[in-house]
Design a protein that fits this description.
Length: 144
């Protein structure tokens, strides 16, 4: 292994399961390359409204995480006819946020996966994968 170069792979929050039902979106995943940790936060950040975000507790430990988004709380934070929320993981002791996504498999273009929209407080709320295979949620006054 003479001359081998170490490759630094930044930590990433890898989504393994998304369960939208009963007025919630449950997300399970793992942190790849992030070491062992506890007490992270799920950060749900609006693209349209600067400074608008929810910080929710995560469960789990080691490299695993689980978080649930209460859609009544998210709907109350929505403004306008449509709003997109990007999902991040905040680990203790790290300044940067890790964008939730699904990258460690051989499926490119996760937009083929669709999740059911839920009607909450006069809005339709639906998780989806972006063109970069990251997980986001859209709130809309119009049914999908």
């Amino acid at each position: 292994m003479h001359g081998a170069t170490a490759v630094f792979i930044p930590a990433q929050a890898e989504v393994e399961e998304v369960w939208p039902r009963d007025g919630q979106v449950l997300i399970r995943g793992m942190v790849a390359g992030g070491g062992s940790w506890e007490d992270g936060k799920l950060v749900v950040r609006s693209r349209e409204s600067t400074g608008s975000e929810l910080r929710l507790p995560t469960a789990g430990g080691g490299s695993r995480f689980e978080a649930s988004i209460d859609l009544d709380e998210l709907a109350a934070s929505c403004s306008g006819a449509e709003q997109t929320w990007d999902l991040h993981l905040k680990l203790p002791g790290r300044a940067e946020l890790l964008r939730l996504g699904r990258h460690l498999n051989d499926i490119v273009g996760k937009r083929i996966f669709t999740y059911p929209a839920q009607a909450v407080a006069g809005m339709w709320i639906e998780p989806y994968y972006t063109v970069k295979d990251n997980l986001s949620i859209v709130c809309s006054l119009e049914a999908p």
